[in-house]
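hiii, so i know i said id send this last week but things got crazy w the move. better late than never?? heres the sequnce for the chain we talked about at the cafe, plus the structure i predicted for it. fair warning i was half asleep when i ran it
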Amino acid sequence: MTTTAVRSGFRAGLIELRQGFTGTALIGQLFWPVVTLVAIWFLRDLPFSGVRLGPLILPSTVGMFVALGMLLTVQQLAADREDGSLLRAKATPHGIRGYLVGKFVNVSATVVAYLLILLVPGALLIGGLSIDAAGVLTLAWVLALGFIATQALGAVLGASVENSRGAGVLSVPVIVLIAISGIFYPITALPEWLQVVGQIFPVYWLGLGVRSALLPEHAAALEIDQSWRHLETAAVLGAWAVAGLIVAPIVLRRMARRESGSRVARRRESLQQRVG
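okay and structure toks below
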């Protein structure tokens, strides 16, 4: 039954992915990565500590979009609670497990599409990247740990909100966290106490890991300890990933047990009132 649930979840995730990248939905999917790439292009030649700002920001925004997979998970979970999709998943054997697999497939593939939109033209238009076999390997393990860590955290956060309005409120602290995580400029430019806060969460380590994979070795001089700190990156991202994999299923099972037809009906009524 577990294999069946995983297989059905994988198929469901691919169906949702196809729906998200067809028709008018495709415009919305392309908007943010394209706008981000355009903004980096305009900033590409600004100087920062003797280097160009564009090549520093481009790898960092790759880490940012992986972290935004956390928000995508929160938003989709909230939407599925509102329309009853989660309740229907609960009613089938191992349905929650299949549901989680589907969300992971959908969100991960969506983020990969964003990254390709950023990196492929960005490497040509912005320049300054250093891509080799070791860098590709580093990028692979950083992204793998990052996907698991951020989406598991997104599932935990999503279980705490019941509607899309709550998901919108949660986006504010996530955006603040991104702002203090060295995504748009090196974290060493921030006050030391903000550097400490930023290093607690996975967003900073995602940006650092991607920068270490795509930038030349001398760029490490702008980082904390003037090092890429691969061991620390693997340890922090790995810790968040393991914690998420342990906590997320527990939280989601408890949340699913509380789901009922009456709760879904109240959410739908509330949504209709807001839309009206």
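btw The mean pLDDT is 84. thought thatd interest u
miss u guys!!
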